Amino acid sequence: MPDKIKSAIFISGRGSNMMALVDAARAADFPLEYVVVVANDPEAGGLEWARQQGIEAIAISHRDFNKDREAHEKAIDSELRKRGVEFICLAGYMRILTPWLVGQWSGKMINIHPSLLPKYKGLHTHERAIEAGDTEHGASIHWVNAGVDDGEVILQARVPILDGDTPDALAARVLAQEHQLYPAAVRKIFSAL
What does the radius of gyration of the chain's CA atoms come to, in whole angstroms? Predict the structure, then answer.
């Protein structure tokens, strides 16, 4: 097996998809090694979990940059390059990226989104799917580009919407699928190389 590719995971909260990726990376044949977890919020619960797994976890608070999104991303980019990162997995990273960072990592950054893209880009996807009367919902892994949740879809998981579903119940079923989908998408990307 060739050397694993040094990678980063970006989070903003508890990081359940980060946990699924880290667990998957324990397999000898998984293509990525997660060398750093980056959060935009120092209070993100997933940071401590990552540290407990022996992964460096850093917070670069967007609040420290006086709403200068590109300056915030340049600080993150600098930290990634210091660590030799070659690939990024966004896992519940709740920031809209600037064209600058997207351009720096074009073809090397993926995201997970809780909908069957191109449907329901942005927030409140579970509520929107139920309100629209959809019979199925799900999650997508996609390449990151300059548009919000707009990049080419790599892999999707579908979940039925049940009679009487609430957004929370649907979200829980989708999340369970996300934890399997994200590692599968990473394997798909790197098996194609």
Answer: 16
At a CB cut-off of 8 Å and minimum separation 6, what does 68 contact? none
> pLDDT tens digits for 33-44?
999 999 999 999
* Residue in 113, 126, 142, 179 annotated catalytic: 113
Rounded CA-CA distance 91/175 in Å is: 12
Task: Give catalytic status of residue 124 as yes or no.
Answer: no
Say if residues 171 and 126 touch (Cβ distance below 8 Å): yes
3-state secondary structure of 55: coil
Put simply, whether the predicted model's pTM sits higher than 0.85 gets the answer yes
Beta strands in 40-165 (DSSP E): 56-59, 87-90, 109-113, 136-143, 153-160
Cα–Cα dist 155/188, whole Å: 8
Is the Cα torsion angle 98, 39, 123, 110 positive or negative in sign?
positive
